[in-house]
Design brief:
Chain lengths: 274, 146, 122
């Protein structure tokens, strides 16, 4: 058998039907190199504790379902190799700052509600064009790169668990929503800053971020929400003195016929296999 | 499927999440230090305005107060206040720059291993902390004034 | 634009505090280094009154008072409002801090004005 190490997993359990407060259960496994925390949970469920509950799906770090608090840091269980934690004891708890439904399952509704509050969709002056497109919005590679980083968010919720403001303030929008607010504000197809100001210029908006940076440290996809929030603050300050998101800068539409012509101009390279 | 909110456990960290920086990065500790020094400084400022208002009670009352503040324990407290003010001011300079989006690089496609804005402005953090340390050491001369 | 304006002002007063507080530190706490005068002398009643009678000092203290109180109390308001408060408590915090700030400002201005008008020798 390949080299394995004996690791004790302390897992937080909570059954809403029988418990008034969570408690901890311990399980010991022989962990081979490369085993992830998610795989360990599957093994625990298969061999030791069939009632253990958690959320997971893709097991490869793209769906954002398996966020957990592992050794006091929020991580995706599928992306965390047990032996890389360099600890003989691994604590696994549900993500903090979300209501705990059962065992390791958080109720992510606060994340979704805050995300919805900042209107996470393109607001273009020609709303008919957005709903029934006749062409393509023109966006250069540079214009795309201004916000592309923030589009990688997988809504895993680790950032809200890490944030010290979310810990005390239930109404704070949180790093995910604020970074997405910047994602849309910086998108040249969008001119909706004014509509989002209702949520952003309120007390529980970006100014309650104090750059602790824990959200960016926790983010598993390199979205760097803290960066997005600081850029959002800059945008809001500039807007308050008159350098805002003006409709005339918003992307123009290239008619479909021209789009097709542009595609046809990019002919494929000549065949090399006869 | 709907979650029955009344039976779920409130897992909010509360004040512990605010105050306990745990295994997070240095900047999270700086956030804590900035908050605590800020609270200390505003408390001191209010006390200071009230205390210096004692001058209207006349020269004798004032001299008595100044004699108290010249005593060794108060000289130490005064220096600690200086340390708090320097930390808050210099960390604040870092925060002004960073919270307006400077020293954080430009948005770019994330390529693993990801470099967060925390790491990008780390050199600035080190310079500011070094400057703060130097000023605090130089300022300790006030403990030895006659 | 309200929160943006409040926050921007919080940042804008920082250079005022940095310069004026720096001057205040140099004069009151580091007088032997910057003014070749002992700390006791710098804080003596008659020295304080004499200094306080200059228009520069009056303006400096007024600005420092306003800037320092605004910056500090905005920060305190932020810290308190980040706690889970009921809507009533939110109003109590906002109005309470405003009133408290105005009271301390009034006290500070009264003392500054008193010093400006005090006869030399107290």
């Amino acid at each position: 058998m390949a080299d394995t190490k004996q690791i004790t997993f302390r897992v937080r359990r909570f059954d809403p039907d029988t418990d008034s407060a969570p408690h901890w259960d311990s399980y010991t496994l022989n962990v081979p190199d490369g085993m992830t925390v998610l795989e360990a949970l599957h093994q625990i469920k298969a061999e030791k504790e069939p009632t253990l509950a958690w959320r997971s799906s893709c097991r490869m770090g793209v769906c954002g379902s398996c966020g957990m608090f592992i050794n006091d840091l929020p991580m995706l269980a599928c992306q965390t190799q047990v032996l890389h934690l360099n600890a003989d004891a691994v604590t696994v708890a549900p993500l903090p700052n979300y209501p705990n439904v059962k065992d390791l399952v958080p109720n992510l509704e606060p994340l979704i509600e805050k995300h919805a509050a900042i209107k996470p969709f393109i607001i273009h002056p020609n709303s008919k064009e957005v709903d029934e497109p006749t062409g393509e919005f023109i966006q250069s590679a540079e214009e795309r790169e201004a916000f592309s980083q923030f589009t990688y968010c997988i809504k895993c919720g680790l950032c809200l668990s890490a944030c010290p403001t979310v810990a005390t303030d239930p109404l704070f929008l949180g790093p995910q929503a604020l970074a997405q607010a910047y994602r849309y504000t910086a998108d040249n197809r969008d001119c909706g800053l004014k509509e989002r100001l209702v949520a952003l210029d309120a007390f529980h908006g970006p100014y309650q971020c104090h750059m602790a940076g824990a959200c960016s440290q926790a983010c598993p996809k390199g979205v760097d929400p803290a960066f997005g929030i600081q850029l959002l603050k800059r945008t809001l300050v500039l807007d308050s003195i008159g350098f805002g998101n003006k409709p005339k800068h918003v992307a123009k539409v290239m008619p479909l016929a021209d789009v097709v012509k542009q595609i046809e101009e990019f002919a494929p390279p000549p065949r090399t296999v006869k | 499927m709907s979650t029955n909110k009344s039976s779920s456990y409130n897992n909010r960290l509360g004040l512990k999440g605010w105050m306990y920086a745990g295994r997070y990065s240095f900047e999270r500790y700086l956030y804590l230090g900035h908050r605590l020094s800020g609270l200390g400084l505003i408390a001191y400022m209010v006390l200071h305005i009230v205390e210096t208002a004692n001058r209207i009670r006349g020269e004798e009352a004032w001299a008595g107060l100044m004699a108290l503040f010249a005593s060794p324990p108060f000289r130490v407290i005064e220096y600690l206040l200086f340390v708090m003010a320097i930390f808050h001011a210099l960390n604040g300079v870092r925060l002004i720059l960073v919270e307006l989006g400077f020293f954080l690089g430009k948005p770019q496609e994330p390529v693993y291993p990801y470099k967060s804005s925390i790491m990008k402005h780390r050199p600035l953090t080190y310079i500011i902390m070094l400057l703060a340390f130097v000023v605090m050491v130089l300022g300790s001369s006030s403990l030895f004034f006659e | 634009m309200r929160e943006t304006r409040l926050w921007s002002l919080h940042i804008l007063v920082i250079p005022i505090i940095a310069v004026l507080l720096g001057m205040h530190f140099a004069l009151m706490h580091y007088a032997p280094v910057f003014y070749d005068v002992s700390v006791d002398e710098a804080r003596e009643f008659s020295t304080m009154i004499e200094r306080g009678k200059s228009m520069t000092q009056f303006v400096v203290y007024t600005l420092l008072l306003i800037a320092g109180l605004y910056h500090g109390l905005y920060g305190l308001r932020g810290i308190l409002r980040e706690l889970p408060l009921t809507p009533t408590l939110v109003k109590v915090v906002d109005i309470g801090i405003l009133i408290f700030g105005l009271m301390i400002f009034a006290l500070g201005m009264y003392v500054t004005w008193w010093t400006f008008n005090a006869p030399l020798g107290g």
